[in-house]
């Protein structure tokens, strides 16, 4: 709860909200509060915020376009390991959604096989009602604990107030799990009672969709935050893979040019050696001819 409030304040007022005038100072891209993922591409927690796959707040409060530009134009770009770690996280999330797609497709095949049998809607109604009642009980307990925390806090009993808040947080997680289970029950009921409405699985985010649904509903799905988040992940992976391949090709070309330069130097050196040898042979020949001419002159004088 405290971390949540601190994160909200950081986003609204900046991470240096508690600094006195003149204490702020300039922040560089390697500051510990800067989101490394944002420097490379985009922040994953921000992309999934308020979706059913919400992964919480980003632990790094600073997401600044100017810092991103400064990093990507610096000579340290690609040398700090940010790209490798980010690429691994993207791949993990992409693989997770691929597994979800396969799982939902298998469920769809199973439910289609069951569609010919009589499945009573009362079973799902009872399950949903049971889950709703459990959530209401948890909700009342959470409200009671939060009231208790306020009272203890007002009386100065900090430890007791924190204990009550922790218990409320634990019950909140249970409440969220029950809501998730209720949503699953509703999804299964919709699938089984759809009649002639055929379902399909979105190949980007893994959600169930109606085949031949109204275009407005399809557009709503495609513009939804969850679908866009997984689209961005795939596009970012493709972009980074392409950049790696281009860098690899560039290095291979540079190595090829270096090899050509070395080969040319060897050829030039060999040619120079050959020219030196030719000069040496010419010099030796001239010396021999000179000695021979001198010898003949001596013979004539005799």
Automatic annotation (TrEMBL):
Molecular function terms, GO-annotated: mRNA binding
Keywords: Coiled coil
An annotated GO BP: mRNA splice site recognition
Signal peptide bounds: none
Keyword Coiled coil among UniProt keywords: yes
Positions in coiled-coil regions: 87-191
InterPro entries: Luc7-rel
Pfam entry (one): LUC7
Region described as Disordered: spans on this chain: 250-302
Domain of life per record: Eukaryota
Family: Belongs to the Luc7 family.
Name of the protein in its database record: Luc7-like protein 3
